[in-house]
Amino acid sequence: MHLFMSVVYFLYAAFNPSDSHFYYEKVMLDYRGPSWIDFYGTSTTFIEWVGYPFIRYFGFSYEAMMVLFSFMGFLGFIYFYIFFKEHVKFRHKVFGIELLPIIFLLPNLHFWSASFGKGSIILLGMGLFFFSLSSPKERFVPLLIGSFIIYHVRPHIMLVMIISSILAFTFSSKGLNTSLRVALILVSIISFYFIYEDVLTLVGIEQGEEFAQGLDLTHRAEELTKATSGVDITSYSLPMQVFTFLFRPLFIDAPGLLGLIVSFENVFYLGMLLIILNIKGFSFIVKGNYLVKAAFFSFIFVSIALAQISGNLGIAIRQKSQVMFLFLFFVIAFLDQQKMVRYLEFRRRAKKTSKVVNQS
User: Among 89, 93, 161, 175, which one has the highest count of C-beta atoms within 10 angstroms of its own C-beta?
Assistant: First the structure.
């Protein structure tokens, strides 16, 4: 699937504007300076910095860079798959079809992680991050690499994931005294301080104006609505903004063939949402383990942040692919917990029945 979607994206980029062309041309033309260090930075410049040695030192063509970054995206899928397999005990089916393969074969997730750009490398970073979060002591190096990638591609995403992880640990660890909980919250505040300036730069807010504006991101959203398939979300309520970001287009507002394909995926996501929209689903947020909470908090906070600046449906389709794995992990972890409850109840009844038979 990933190889197929890599070819599809390559053909798409051949007939449509694509950032991958601009990244390659900027490196070839020494757009930011004559040396590798001139390209170092966050966001767009980081993609160029990663690509620089392959293009300038090893002579990679544009096609070779597409293959390289597509492979990075594929590695992101591998690490997420290992993360899922380590924490999902049972097989789950939807309409008689096993759920886990469906999740990892969704075409939109592959499409936006199969090119020379941010989507592929940030998926690798997030895959490494959550893969390492399962066992941070043994996987400390992959955790650092994943954090390094996420921060440099999207500093605000790294900020959210740090805070989400700290909150998950703080509210999941039993026997944690108050002073330690306070210390952990302070660590999250300090982390915010160091990433703060990059976050403001990325969302287009001038430092010193953010409190006057109340971190108002509407001007950024208005800029994005000028692009093709723009949808003005500035007048929407926050819940509607988040819904638009996560679950649109839905056929009637699909921007082209790609939008129609994504609409089928969005129907699948809505189906997954319905599974957890109940009392048991809400209680699972409270009772879930550290990883469940980290994935859930990261998904919610990132979605809220991105929803406010993704005024264009095309951009929303691309950006949400970074966080949908976290949503799907939460859903399948919930299904797993429910099946575990039934399994333990079955064992308890079987043991009780066996005891009665033996006594007889």
Answer: 161
